[in-house]
Write a structure and sequence with these properties.
Layout (H helix, E strand, L loop, with lengths): L8 H7 L7 H38 L8 H12 L26 H4 L4 H8 L7 E6 L4 H16 L4 E8 L9 H18 L6 E9 L23 E6 L7 H11 L6 E5 L15 E4 L5 H10 L5 E5 L19 E2 L5 E7 L1 H10 E2 L5 E6 L8 H11 L5 E5 L5 H9 L1 H4 L4 E5 L7 H7 L19 E7 L4 H11 L17 E10 L8 H7 L7 E10 L17
Parallel strand pairs: 1-2, 2-3, 3-4, 4-5, 5-6, 6-7, 7-9, 8-10, 9-11, 11-12, 12-13, 13-14, 14-15, 15-16
Length: about 550
């Protein structure tokens, strides 16, 4: 490189020696450096210009330019489509669509790339059919006015997926009762903008996550006579515990005006449903209380029901039973697969077992009320026999069945050969030694069991005396847990995947008793099976007639 540089004779002699340059040499060298740096700057500008030209010509050859608008539209639709589903939404707490690096699939972001993309995005109604508007301030309606109008306009006749939320504000000035009322009123103003398009509603999610200490003078908009004929899925939640609050009454009216609903999630009290005209309903979920007669309206009017989750916890409410005559036929729900009912009173449980048949039922989950009622053993057995369903999950909590009853149920053919998940929780009382022994798989090489009890059982929840039943618990676990890779032949029962045990330990005034030894032993296998041990202190006494010594207990 140095040989290619032409230097003046004076500078060549300086370059080959250690002689310092003179004052005239310094001025000459400085002038030469300024000239060379100016040339480098000019060449840099020329290089940047050439690179820009190369990029422009490369874009002319880009494959994206060859895509027809129809194919580009399909790509955009697939990019945004998952947001239409609740569990793929970013959050009810964020606005959508918007210009945000975290929302790269927003149609607004797509429309800002180039003219062609903007034209395609604005002419694709599906991209603008999803909108989420959380209201944290009284100015929510004003802030979202342009966004709502844009989505309604550009979505044209496409189905609308709407999420409208009223949230608590972190700003102190918006926490006053007046500000809360204004925020609620602002959300209703936004709802008014969607009402003319109610025939296009496909998904509607209304979340009122703020306590209404001062109700707004504004009322909810009236529903048209045509209702919401295309509404497929509705989710409603409010903090109001009242049946007759304006938001609950309006949501119930919307339910009745939507005959083609397939999915209902209602996190608010339900009362006086009047009718259930949803012949296509597949999923119904009410977790904040409802009456049994309203649930039976759903059973009678929704033959396609597959999942039903309901809670009967109502303050100061007694059982509200349906009116049936002995000559009336039982209700057959041929598609019902999951039935989960909580806070059941005895009268409600009896009505369910007496008047319902579910031949396709796989998950049966019952939880009783806070008080103990007698257990309708014959009706429960009749329900299982009449339904002839093959249960995968059986969960009975806060109910007064006996362990002898449970062993009888587990011997039934439609339970014995198919049950995978079993939950037994009777107010944290221990299961009997007989039931624990019944669940323990007995196997030996001399007398193999040809038809084991519950061969598919892999998930169990129950309570035991941590001291008295520690050794039987170990035997139960060892009988149903194994590592499949170590077995050369198939094992008669499924490997245990989850064990949840409530360890009941006695209260002693002058000593401390815990289940830490049991917990420590099971910690050795927590990486291979899910172990959930909860310690619960109970009064000592006759529940501990004898304590078996934990000999060789740590041999798991």
């Amino acid at each position: 490189m140095q040989e290619d540089i032409e230097l003046q004779p004076r500078f060549q002699s300086l370059f080959k020696s250690n002689e310092p340059p003179s004052h005239l040499d310094v001025l000459a060298i400085s002038q030469i450096l300024e000239d060379r740096l100016a040339q480098i700057f000019e060449l840099g500008q020329q290089l940047a210009k050439l690179r820009t030209e190369v990029h422009v010509y490369e874009t002319l050859l880009s494959g994206i330019r060859k895509l027809p608008p129809e194919l580009l539209t399909e790509i955009f639709v697939h990019l945004i489509a998952p947001i239409n589903e609740r569990y793929y939404r970013y959050s009810i707490y964020s606005c959508y669509p918007r210009v945000d690096a975290l929302h790269q699939s927003s149609p607004i972001v797509l429309s800002h790339v180039c003219r062609k993309w903007r034209s395609v995005a604005l002419s694709t109604p599906q991209l603008w059919s999803t909108i989420s508007v959380p209201h944290r301030t009284p100015l929510g309606c004003f802030n979202y006015a342009n966004l709502v109008e844009r989505c309604i306009t550009h979505s044209r006749v496409s189905p609308l997926y709407i999420t409208l939320a009223v949230l608590n504000s972190t700003n102190a000035e918006f926490r006053s009762p007046t500000a809360k009322g204004l925020r609620f009123s602002s959300a209703l103003d936004t709802l008014d903008k969607f009402m003319p398009e109610i025939s296009r509603w496909r998904y509607f999610h209304l979340d009122l996550l703020t306590s209404q200490t001062v109700l707004s003078e504004r009322s909810f908009p009236s529903l048209p006579l045509s209702g919401a004929p295309n509404l497929y899925k509705i989710l409603f939640r409010t903090y109001s515990p009242n049946f007759d609050s304006s938001e609950v009454l309006w949501a119930l009216e919307l339910l009745r005006a939507s005959p083609n609903l397939h999915h209902i999630l209602f996190l608010a009290p339900i009362s006086n449903l009047v009718e259930a005209p949803w012949v296509h309903l597949q999923h119904f979920e009410s977790r904040n209380g409802m009456r049994l007669r309203d649930l039976f309206l759903i059973f009678e009017g929704c033959p396609a029901l597959e999942n039903c989750i309901a809670c009967f916890e109502l303050e100061d409410e007694g059982p509200s039973l349906p009116s049936f005559r002995e000559s009336d036929p039982v209700i057959v729900l041929s598609q019902l697969r999951k039935l989960q009912l909580t806070h059941l009173r005895q009268a409600e449980l009896i009505a369910i077992l007496q008047w319902l048949t579910a031949p396709s039922l796989t998950d049966l989950i019952f939880a009783g009320h806070h008080v103990s009622d007698s257990w309708p053993d014959e009706l429960f057995r009749s329900f299982l026999a009449r339904s002839a369903c093959e249960l995968n999950t059986l969960s009975l909590s806060r109910l007064s069945y006996s362990d002898a009853n449970m062993m009888d149920y587990l011997r039934l053919p439609n339970v014995r050969h198919t049950l995978e998940h079993l939950v037994l929780d009777k107010w944290k009382t221990p299961i009997s030694p007989e039931l624990l022994n019944f669940l323990t798989f007995k196997f030996s090489s001399e007398s193999p069991v040809s038809s084991p009890v519950l061969p598919k059982l892999n998930d169990v929840t129950f309570a035991i005396h941590a001291i008295v039943q520690a050794v039987p618990l170990r035997e139960f676990f060892l009988s149903r847990w194994y590592e499949g890779s170590r077995n050369h032949v198939p094992f008669p029962v499924a490997a245990l995947q989850r064990l949840a045990v409530i360890l009941l330990v006695p209260y002693l005034p002058n000593a401390t008793v815990s289940g830490e030894q049991i917990r420590r032993i099971f910690s050795r296998v927590e990486d291979m099976v899910e172990i959930d041990l909860e310690t619960y202190v109970v009064n000592g006494g006759p529940d501990y007639p004898g304590i078996e010594k934990l000999k060789n207990f740590d041999e798991i």
